[in-house]
Amino acid sequence: MAATLSTAASAVAGEIGRIKSVTGAAQVVRGKSAAPAVAGQLLQVSDVLKTGPSGRIGVTFVDNSRFAVGPNTTLALSEFQFDDTTHAGHALTTLDRGTLAVVSGQIAHENKDGMRVRTPTAVLAARGTRFVVEVGR
C-alpha cells in the first residue's frame, strides 16, 4: 500500500490529502479518467493535478504539508507514505510544468530528504519549510 495512514481523519483507504481550494480550470486525473477538481476532493497516490491558464489548486496533505499549484501546471503525486504516530514517511511529487509552492509538513521535519520534487532536469529535496519550484515549457 502506497499510503500508510492511521488516524480516523485519514480513514478513507489510500487518502493522502484533500483539495482545499480551486480557482479557474483545474482537473484531477486518476488512471485514465479526468474530472474537474473540487474543494473537499480526496487525493490518492498517482493522481495528477492539472491546471489551465487561470487555474489554481490548494492541497493539504495528511502530514500537514500544503501545496499551492499555479496556472498551467501538471503535477503528479508520485509517492506518499506517512505514519502519523512516528511521523516517519516520504513523499515524491513530479512537476512536469508550471509552478508549485510548498509549505512542508511533518515528513520534511522528521526526515531532511523525506520530501522530494522531481522536475524534468533535477530532483529537489525539501530541507526548508517553504519553497517554490517553477518549470517552464
What is the gist of this entry?
Helices cover 4% and strands 53% of the residues. The chain has one helix and twelve strands. It has one helix at residues 106-110; strands at 15-23, 26-30, 33-36, 42-44, 48-51, 56-61, 66-69, 74-82, 89-103, 115-118, 123-125, 130-135.
Any overview of this molecule?
The protein has 137 residues and is mostly beta strands. It is built from 1 helix and 12 strands, in the order E-E-E-E-E-E-E-E-E-H-E-E-E. Strands 1, 2, 3, 4, 5, 6, 7, 8, 9, 10, 11 and 12 form a 12-stranded mixed sheet that branches. Strand 2 and strand 3 form a beta hairpin. The radius of gyration is 14 Å and the shape is globular. The N terminus is likely disordered.
List the helices and strands and how they pair.
Elements: E1 15-23, E2 26-30, E3 33-36, E4 42-44, E5 48-51, E6 56-61, E7 66-69, E8 74-82, E9 89-103, H1 106-110, E10 115-118, E11 123-125, E12 130-135
Parallel strand pairs: 9-10
Antiparallel strand pairs: 1-4, 1-6, 2-3, 2-5, 5-8, 6-7, 7-9, 8-9, 9-12, 10-11
**Sheet with most strands:** 12 strands, mixed
- Principal-axis shape: globular
Number of helix segments? 1
Question: Which blocks of ≥5 consecutive residues have pLDDT under 50?
Answer: 1-11
* SS strand fraction: over 45%
Coarse structural class: mainly beta
Strands, count: 12
Average predicted local confidence, pLDDT: 89
Terminal CA distance reads: 33 Å
Order of helices and strands: EEEEEEEEEHEEE
What assembly state would you assign to the polypeptide chains in this entry?
single chain
> Can you give the helix content as a percent range?
under 10%
